[in-house]
Amino acid sequence: MTAHGFMQIGLYLAALLGCVKPLGIYMARVYSGRGPLKRFVEPLERLLFRCGGIDREREMSWRQYAAALLMFSFVGFLAVYGLQRLQAVLPLNPEALPAVSPDSSFNTAVSFVTNTNWQGYAGETTMSYLTQMLGLTVQNFVSAAAGMAVLVALIRGFTRRHSPTIGNFWVDLVRGTLHILLPLSLVLAIVLVSQGVVQTFSRYREATLLEPSVNAAGKTVTTQGMAVGPAASQVAIKQLGTNGGGFFNVNSAHPFENPTPLSNFLEMLAILLIPAALCYTFGEMVGDRRQGWALLAAMSVIFLAMLAVSCYSEQRGNPALARLGVDQTASRQQSGGNMEGKEVRFGIVNSAIWSVATTAASNGSVNSMHDSYMPLGGLASMWLMQLGEVIFGGVGSGLYGMLVFAVVAVFIAGLMVGRTPEYLGKKIGAFEMKMAALAILLPCAMVLLGTASAVSAQSGREGIFNPGPHGFSEVLYAFSSTANNNGSAFAGLAANTPFYNGLLGLAMLVGRFLVMLPVLAIAGSLAAKKIVPQGPGTLPTHTPLFVVLLVAVVIVIGALSFFPALALGPIVEHFMLAAH
Amino acid sequence: MLKQLRAALVVLAALTVLTGVIYPGVVTAIAQLAFRHQANGSMIYVGGKAVGSDLIGQSFSKPEYFWGRLSATSPFPYNADASTGSNYGPLNPALKKAAESRIAELRQSGVRDARPPVDLVTASASGLDPHISVAAAKYQVTRVARARIMSEATVRRLVDQCAEGPQLGLFGEPRVNVLRLNLALNQLQAQTAK
User: What are A66-113's pLDDT values in tens digits?
Assistant: First the structure.
């Protein structure tokens, strides 16, 4: 790797850390009802709540909060499903795209409602502009805001004492959308357009080729069609809301979705921006900023380790190509390395940062094809998802996942010294531990059982594209991605079949709601408890020691659950490559 | 239950209008007013005719043009109506085969001894990559110069002119826009012919 490469990594981390505090404070103010945009947004909120018969002041128990969330998600699912099925007869469909098949519509609707944004379809050949805007863009906003709402409810669980309620879902949802996601997206979308991301309602463009080309049927092709659309507005929120569903098939590798190194830097920054800043918001809201920094530190440790693995493995290049005499050395004239499935303007470093950021966060957008990564580079991405999407993770969902791990960590520490575990002054009891275990183990089980069923079934094996252990990795990656609501893919897998659309849809539902419900249950149970004062025997949870403990718990659970499966895929492939 | 349903419907409808209609509408309006060229695909016009986009690559295979990345789109390379990568895993025999046949083509028509730069023998992520590395452009100078009966120094100078460094001196990798370079070549030759 060149000095320029290291500089780009440094720049990225510096920009990210620089945003944590200001955005973190801003979000804490928003969720405490003191957002700086209140003056403009409040009249709108009042009107909305009056029409919906919602009393802003009335708080909900965790069960009511969960019911509201489920109801909202279900209505959203129906809307996205309906739009896809009816798009042929609806307006804003200049390319006259037909209705989407029932199984694909189901999969996509689940995918966007659960903030996964797994894409079984190719955007430019499947979705009308209307579906992209009213269906997909809207869910990009609200599924992200719903994740943040659940996080805020959990934080209230820690800060309140003897409280039967954890907040009002509708208020949290609307605030997250209007105060945080919408303003940030608006700014980012316009900057992206200035770089060349398309934003138009007109038909696909056409140009005359300089040199005519020949198609698969042997016919001469003299023109080049170019899919366009209202992309920038959707790209901005898909990056900020850890959604990741691309406007075009190849997502942010497409030059119209990510045209320049600067657009790439901003889109990459947007992936981790909110998840990282929410750590600060958490510290601010629980009244001890060190708690937030400790969680951010734990996330960063694992992130940096995986980034190093990915950069090293991709920059080293492919020995199979080296043997053909191909020049893969990094220099001032080329980025070198494993360039299959990568774009020249991004090179190795910016592709590797993105692949690690997008899988650490449950974003799932890509600017390079993960299927073509070297075995260790692919492993880094896959494993980050298998850790439960808690290394930054989804907006809201990443941090509440990490808090569940923190609860487990204090429990383990409590076992070691023989004291009742407590976190932030709340005693962790049997109920919290049961819920934490469910939230961690259900997605793990879904990944492993889903992969096992797919490779056992004929219709599952038919979708595999690459031969050998890499084919197994494709399936394992798909279930790791969907059951943890990431959405990126080893895209060789032909997953737009009724089999995969159904099973992966189920995985996404498990990964979303069977984690959210236990988390809300924990929130409710904690809120009802008293806050015990810190004593000399209390384990401090803001120290480097706790960071190490937390990282160890996350890694041990992730490693123990998935090592056997990884050994059959990327690990064996790595050794095959070495022996090649 | 009915109360929750009403709330859900109203909130979804209101947020759909705000984030699904007004937000993309406002972005489109600003984009079309302030960044018309970029918002509509950064098209390149020569003599009033659209000959491509600054951002989308085209397929080149004649010796007198610089060649771009391999493209996995179907039914023809650089089909910008349906972007896709090859998705070949690192050990897939098809990956090796594609690289071998590209190397054979390059050797047949150009320099024999130099090692081909990796971006010239691999497929891009989008299948539409408009760029090659500066190394990959330099690698093809001899062939292009010979096919056009131009001096290598002239062609090399043109490559240097078209080469882009990191954006703002900070971001991205050294690269050359293949379509822009080929258009510049055509223009240069047309001028000298006059």
Answer: 999 999 999 999 999 999 999 999 999 988 999 999 999 999 999 999
Which of A254, A259, A123, A261 has its CA nearest to residue B42? A259
What average pLDDT does the segment A141-170 reach?
97
CA distance A534 to A287: 14
How many Å apart are CA A86 and CA A69, to the nearest integer? 26
* Mean pLDDT along residues A477-504: 96
B165: contact with A, CB 8 A cutoff: no
Contacts of B16 in chain A (CB under 8 A): 79, 134, 138
Is there a single domain that holds both residue B83 and residue B127?
Answer: yes
Amino acid A216: pLDDT: 86
Domain of residue B14, residue span: 1-40
Q: Closest partner residue to A335 among B124, B130, B173, by Cβ?
A: B173
> Shortest Cα distance from B187 to chain A (angstroms)?
13
Beta bridge partners of A224: A207
Q: Do A334 and B103 touch (CB under 8 A)?
A: no
Q: Domain check: are B99 and B7 in the same one?
A: no
Confidence at A281, pLDDT banded by 50, 70, 90: very high
Per the domain annotation, does B12 fall within a domain?
A: yes
Cα(A369)–Cα(A254) distance, rounded to whole angstroms? 11
State both tokens at A149. 């709402």
Q: What domain range is A32 assigned to?
A: 21-208+224-283
Measured between beta carbons, the chain B residues lying within 8 angstroms of A190 are 27, 30-31, 34
Q: In the structure encoding, which two tokens stand for residue A193, read together?
A: 């357009």
Answer yes or no: do B144 and B179 share one domain: yes
pLDDT digits (tens, 9 = 90+) for B11-47: 999 999 999 999 999 999 999 999 999 999 999 999 8
Residues 392-411 of A with CB under 8 A from B: none
- The ipTM (two decimal places) reads 0.96
The strand ranges marked E within A406-517 are 422-423, 426-427
* Amino acid at position A535, single letter: G
B133 touching chain A per CB within 8 A: yes
Average pLDDT estimate for B153-182: 95
Residue A109 sits at the chain B interface (C-beta within 8 Å): no
pLDDT at B143 over 90: yes
Contacting A residues, span 222-281, partner chain B, CB-CB under 8 Å? 224-228, 230, 232-234, 236-237, 248-250, 253-256, 259-262, 264-265
Taking residue A503's Cβ as centre, other Cβ atoms within 10 Å add up to 23
- For residues B161 and B84, membership in a common domain is answered with yes
> B118 to chain A nearest CA, in Å?
5
d(CA A194, CA A197): 7
DSSP A552: H
Cβ pair A253:B118 closer than 8 A? no
Question: B118, B122, B131, B182: best mutation site toward chain A, by most A Cβ within 10 Å?
Answer: B118
pLDDT at A398: 96
**pLDDT, tens digit (0-9, with 9 covering 90-100), for A376-392:** 999 999 999 999 999 99
Cα-trace Rg, chain A: 23
Cβ contact (<8 Å) for A466 and B175? no
Residues B69 and B142 in one domain: yes
Which of A346-350, A432-436, B44-48 shows the lowest mean pLDDT across its residues? B44-48
> In this complex, is the C-beta atom of A459 within 8 Å of any C-beta atom belonging to chain B?
no
- Which residue has tokens 């085209």? B58
Q: Is residue B112 scored above 90 in pLDDT?
A: no
B43-46 and B175-177 strand pairing: unpaired
d(CA A517, CA A340): 41
Confidence of residue B109 (pLDDT cuts 50, 70, 90): confident
Contacts of B43 in chain A (CB under 8 A): 205, 207
Domain count of chain A?
1
Backbone phi, then psi, for A224, in 5-degree steps? -120, 115
